[in-house]
Design a protein that fits this description.
heterodimer, A: Rossmann fold, six-stranded mixed β-sheet, B: 315 residues, mainly alpha, MetI-like fold, 2 domains, two-stranded antiparallel ribbon, flat
């Protein structure tokens, strides 16, 4: 059977002030009728530029040469008018970040109808009808209302569904999806992939799935192409690639992928067991912590304020040398919780005891003194470093403000030693963050946090923005440093597989409250709360057979607004008062096994 | 949005009050007074005149008398233009000034938007470079230089093109005849055309690189729709923020332009009033200008919310 899309000898080059960048090198590929081709690679592998180049969507400094044939007709570098007959009609695309990829000042209905009317001669009434049907197909509830909403008024998952609706409304034969689930939560990711699988099955649409995530590829693709530095290093049927990889790069990618079913990571640094001596050393004791943000709304002149309960009564203890993993969907309050402990966010109520000392309402000077003992590593390594400071200065800065007695020479010595520790070349002390890769910058962020030898380090999505191979190196580094310095960690991540690898205990947060807290194995092997179960079932495994046989046990409801007091009772509806402003019952934690706490929920 | 507008109006009251107070006392600090002249008046007459205008009282009392009158919109009599109240004079000049200023703003927006968009769509090509070079001239050359040059070209030398007489009147208002308006409006708008086109070019280049413009192109929309429907509205947002300062610049620019072209707007009352120490007239004009700028700024902010649905003032 003739392929739908056939790419031959494609080169994509960008002219930049630093010379020409050859992003895609002499590449061949073909997509057949109704199949799903997975294109996997890390950032900078050219996987996105390959398809942007083929579709004439490169940035103005980019140039594509070679041949791209759609059903036998050349489409590379043809006139915009001719290309526009294919783009958006028979070949459509969806992009990574649905918020920035949708026009902010147009309603989503208008954007979908526009795609339809650009290619088919339909009346506006007919277009509206078709749009409603397609919104229904991508499982958007209350479609009629959604059509009149703007992208920023929708949740991330709904936005991505709108993108899919926009790309399917004309009935394409080929859908190119560029990292469609990278920016969304695991539960939403699972729903989006379900929708795409149905499209492929029911409408016989061929799909190109571009992703860095082996789990996504395993669950979707029929064939896989592995890309590195603009070239395809290995290609084949999905089972061949996953079970019998030939190229070392493919093996590295598969090996680096964190797996929920393999918490031990053979060949890597393991989690150091909690020593019995430190077991009773209570480092941090958080009791009933609450962080509310007043949200102003409505009213004339005098506006009402309503509390947004970002963290709503969280209690836990942390021992010396212990790692507590915190997981939950975006908006569950995990970052706010961490920041409140560090006093980077104001607390509304509750108690924080640090090494036996109540530090809940300590003043600025006391907090400054404590800064030496707890540090934080942020998500975006490049954005969290001052671009005008050399990395040496960035690492040395906590020393200068927290240990002012240190001489400049001694400080530099310490910086160099720490750089060595985190795997950075001490000779690069005078270089700037933009000269470094994401992984190296995150090493700088870790060195900056570690330089004052803190007792507690909070990693707030510290490895989320990194490629999998780099991610596993940084996880190795964090575990190694923890073993060396015997520090405690609070490891916040939306990635449940990584959390299982690095944490002694795991806390699951839902809308500012703990729904489950247990030992790392207990929570994954014996999850009790329906929310925890749904989260775990949504995690993808880089194992095509397991993915195919998996039952799809999905959370259907969207994450509700934290302003609505009923939302926390989504799993305990029997106690709910049906009033968005009422003071509600809060599900209480119950110890179901030693050390395994579960919030109350209605039996199903 | 409505309650936001009301709040902003109420918020403008203290601003206006501070402007009135500053204006009042700064005029009094300036040496001399409305009735000083080369020939000294006999003391009794001078005293009588001053008493008639309450100028014999201490300054703070005069201030409160003035505020009291203002509270029922009485701007008082002009000290120099006998038999006219300040309100009459302003009612006379304001329509002219407003027509001149608003036409200049409209021209600046229309041409600036067009030129900026054309430059952005031809980024780094010859069209782009020429538009931006001309714009740089517009920004750097002040209006009191462009005005006489245009006067020379279109008034004194009287250019003609293909037998068509292109000479234009260089003075007077002639009840707002279009021919009379052309030169002053161009002089007033020129620097703003330049700023607006540079601003639009910059934001348009940025928006054309954005993800949602890429999505629009991927949908196979014709270029015209991509630019007008998806890009332009987002690209004008920075311009809306600039509208406030632009309006202030055009209004102050009109002081000079009205004088050069002999236009009977309120600008000349302002300059003459300030030179003659016509306290009430100057203050009256200042209050009008301030109110005008405040209202137009508010409109610009409201326009921002209309253009960008993400901006909601009532939250």
């Amino acid at each position: 059977m003739a392929p739908i899309l056939e790419i031959r000898n494609l080169d994509v080059r960008f002219s930049t002030p630093d010379g020409e960048v050859h992003a895609v090198k002499n590449l061949d590929l073909a997509v057949g009728e109704g199949e799903c081709l997975g294109v996997v690679g890390e950032s900078g592998s050219g996987k996105s530029q390959l398809f942007l180049g083929a579709m004439g969507l490169l940035a103005s400094n980019g140039r594509a040469t070679g041949s791209v044939k759609y059903r036998g007709d050349e489409i590379l570098n043809i006139s915009q008018n001719r290309l526009n007959k294919i783009r958006g009609s028979t070949i459509t695309m969806i992009f990574q970040d649905p918020l920035t990829s949708l026009t902010p000042h147009m309603t989503v209905g208008a954007q979908i109808m526009e795609a339809l009317r650009a290619h088919q001669n339909v009346s506006s009434g007919e277009a509206e009808k078709r749009t409603l049907e397609i919104l229904d197909l991508v499982r958007i509830s209350e479609a009629r209302q959604r059509m009149d909403q703007y992208p920023h008024e929708l949740s991330g998952g709904t936005r991505q569904r709108v993108m899919i609706a926009m790309a399917t409304v004309c009935g394409p034969d080929l859908l190119i999806a560029d990292e469609p689930t990278t920016a969304v939560d695991v539960t939403v990711q699972a729903q989006i992939l379900d929708i795409m699988r149905d499209l492929q099955k029911e409408l016989k649409t061929a799909i190109v799935m571009i992703s860095h995530d082996m789990g996504v590829i395993a669950g979707m693709a029929d064939r896989v192409q592995v890309m590195r530095e603009g070239e395809i290093v290995e290609a084949g049927p999905v089972d061949e690639i996953f079970y019998r990889p030939k190229h070392t790069y493919t093996k590295t990618l598969l090996d680096a992928m964190p797996r929920l079913d393999r918490p031990m990571r053979e060949g890597h640094v393991g989690l150091s067991p909690l020593s019995t001596i430190s077991a009773d050393q209570q480092l941090l004791n958080v009791e009933d912590l609450k962080v509310y943000f007043p949200i102003r709304s409505g009213g004339f002149l005098f506006r009402k304020t309503k509390p947004l309960r970002a963290v709503d009564g969280v209690s836990f203890r942390l021992r010396q040398g212990e790692t507590l993993g915190i997981v939950g969907e975006s908006g569950c309050g995990k970052s706010t919780l961490a920041r409140a402990i560090l006093k980077l966010a104001p607390k509304s109520d509750g108690k924080v005891v640090w090494c036996g000392r109540d530090v809940t309402f300590s003043n600025d000077a006391e907090v400054r003194a404590l800064r030496k003992e707890f540090q934080i590593v942020f998500q975006d390594p490049l954005a969290s470093l001052d671009p005008r400071m050399t990395i040496g200065e960035s690492i040395a800065e906590p020393l200068r403000s927290l240990k002012p007695e240190l001489s400049a020479d001694a400080a530099t010595q310490e910086v160099r030693a720490m750089m060595q520790h985190v795997g950075l070349e001490p000779a690069s002390i005078n270089r700037y963050p933009h000269e470094f890769s994401g992984g190296q910058n995150q090493r700088v962020g870790i060195a900056r946090a570690m330089i004052v030898k803190p007792k507690l380090v909070i990693c707030d999505e510290a490895v989320s923005a990194l490629d999998v191979s780099i991610q596993s190196q940084i996880v190795d580094l964090i575990l190694k440093l923890q073993a060396e310095f015997n520090m405690s960690l609070i490891f916040i991540s939306h990635d449940l597989s990584i959390v299982r690898q690095v944490s002694h205990r795991v806390m699951v947060l839902y809308l500012g409250r703990i729904v489950e807290l247990a030992d790392r194995h207990a929570i994954y092997e014996d999850p009790r709360h329906p929310y925890t179960r749904a989260l775990i079932s949504a995690v993808l495994t880089p194992d095509p057979k397991a993915e195919r046989s998996k039952s799809h046990d999905r959370l259907v409801s969207e994450l509700a607004s934290p302003l609505d007091t009923r939302a926390q009772l989504a799993f305990l509806k029997s106690h709910m008062i049906d009033d968005a402003d009422a003071e509600q019952y809060r599900p209480q934690l119950q110890e179901v096994a030693p050390g395994h706490f579960v919030a109350e929920f209605d039996p199903e | 949005m409505f309650s936001y507008a009301i709040r902003r109006f109420l918020g403008a009251i203290p601003t206006l009050f501070i402007i009135i107070t500053l204006g009042f006392f700064m005029m009094r600090i300036a040496p001399g007074g409305p009735f000083d002249s080369n020939r000294r008046l006999p003391p009794e007459i001078e005293h009588n005149i001053k008493a008639a205008y309450d100028l014999d009282k201490p300054v703070y009392q005069q201030y409160f008398i003035y505020l009291g009158k203002l509270s029922h919109l009485d701007f008082g009599p002009s000290f120099k233009n006998k038999d006219f109240t300040v309100s009459q004079l302003i009612a006379d000049g304001l329509p002219v000034s407003a027509e001149l200023g608003l036409s200049a703003i409209a021209l600046a927006l229309l041409l600036g938007l067009t030129l900026g968009t054309i430059a952005a769509l031809n980024q780094n090509r010859i069209t782009d470079h020429s538009v931006m070079t001309v714009a740089m001239f517009g920004i750097t050359i002040p209006n009191f230089v462009t005005a006489p040059i245009l006067t020379l070209i279109f008034g004194v030398y009287g250019v003609s093109l293909f037998g068509l007489d292109l000479s234009l009147p260089v003075g007077g208002w002639n009840n707002g005849a279009v021919r009379n308006m052309i030169l002053p409006v161009i002089v007033l708008a020129l620097p703003q055309i330049a700023v607006v086109s540079r601003l639009i070019r910059g934001s348009m280049v940025e928006v054309l690189r954005s993800n949602y413009v890429r999505t629009a192109r991927a949908k196979g929309l014709p270029n015209r729709l991509v630019v007008f429907r998806h890009a332009l509205r987002a690209a004008v947002l920075p311009l809306v923020s600039y509208l406030g300062p632009a309006i202030a610049a055009i209004l102050t620019g009109s002081l000079v332009v009205e004088t050069i072209f002999g236009i009977p707007g309120i600008g000349r009352y302002f300059t003459n009033g300030a030179l003659n120490r016509d306290y009430t007239l100057v203050l009256g004009v200042v209050i009008y200008y301030a109110a005008f700028i405040i209202v137009l700024n508010l409109l610009a902010d409201l326009l921002y919310a209309v253009l960008d649905p993400r901006v909601r003032y009532d939250q």
